[in-house]
Specification:
Blueprint lengths: L11 H14 L8 H6 L6 H8 L15
Length: 68
């Protein structure tokens, strides 16, 4: 599978997601992220924000047992 990485282009959606992760989670040696340096202000944690705002899927229904 890894041999195919150099032959395929990332989709635009995947590239945007990777850019967001880079800008809001990767920290520089001084402890700031690229987003903090660009906006000149501290931001909330990306992953905490996602967990607070994400709609989780419903639990799957229980299967009916036909052995009776």
């Amino acid at each position: 599978m890894l041999r195919h990485h150099g032959r395929h282009r990332l989709s635009d959606t995947h590239l945007k997601a990777q850019t967001v992760v880079h800008n809001y989670s990767i920290k520089n040696s001084d402890g700031t992220t690229p987003a903090e340096r660009f906006f000149e202000t501290k931001h909330t944690d990306l992953f905490e924000c996602l967990l607070d705002n994400m709609n989780f899927p419903a639990r799957p229904r229980k299967r009916f047992n036909h052995t009776a």
